Amino acid sequence: MAEPGGGRPVTVSDVQQLVRRKDEIEAQIKACYELLEGQKGVGMHEPLVDAEGFPRSDIDLYQVRTARHNIICLQNDHKAVMKQVEEALHKLHAREKEKHARDEAEALAEAMSQSQSLPQAFAKVNSVSPGSPASVSGLQVDDEIVEFGSVNANNFQNLQNIATVVQHSEGRPLSVTVIRGGRRVHVGLTPKRWAGKGLLG
């Protein structure tokens, strides 16, 4: 979004500068109009000659002509500055929109790459009994299991696989990896007998 010739993007201070220039021009136009008012209220179009066609003697013709000329020039300048202000604002907004879209795209790309780097889950924790080995290890409801000892998404067939691993690992710590809130979490789980059913709870 670089400016033609300028080679740099429009900034807020550029716009403020243009607005200041616009205010200055408006003040100059107002001063010229006041000068015309002071000349017997001669505006932009009143005749500068009297009924007989002679230059009016009751006003300063040179001042009136100069003021009229200046007003025309200043109004053209004003129009040009207004156009510049408008274009600069458009560019600023377009750049803001572009930046916003770029930020969103980057956030999306980051989220995508994170989700791609997460392994696939093959089971989800539905419940954890209080006081059970699973509860003690820090396993939580809604944790998605991606590794349970030697079982992972590639070799998992059914829950019997997990039951087998649990029976063979009684009293020995198992490495369990889960996805929790979009992040990978490792849990050390030791299957053992407790007050409730099974070795995990």
From TrEMBL:
Name of the protein described by the UniProt record: 26S proteasome non-ATPase regulatory subunit 9
Family under the similarity heading: Belongs to the proteasome subunit p27 family.
Keyword Chaperone part of the UniProt annotation: yes
Keyword Ribosomal protein: no
Domain (PDZ) ranges: 107-182
GO biological process, one term: proteasome regulatory particle assembly
Keywords: Chaperone
Pfam family, one: Nas2_N
Lineage, top ranks: Eukaryota, Metazoa, Chordata, Craniata, Vertebrata
GO cellular component term of the entry, any: cytoplasm
Described purpose of this protein according to its UniProt entry: Acts as a chaperone during the assembly of the 26S proteasome, specifically of the base subcomplex of the PA700/19S regulatory complex (RC). During the base subcomplex assembly is part of an intermediate PSMD9:PSMC6:PSMC3 module, also known as modulator trimer complex; PSMD9 is released during the further base assembly process.
Species assigned in the record: Calcarius ornatus (Chestnut-collared longspur)
Subunit relationships: Interacts with PSMC3. Part of a transient complex (modulator) containing PSMD9, PSMC6 and PSMC3 formed during the assembly of the 26S proteasome.
SMART domains reported in the protein's UniProt record: PDZ (SM00228)
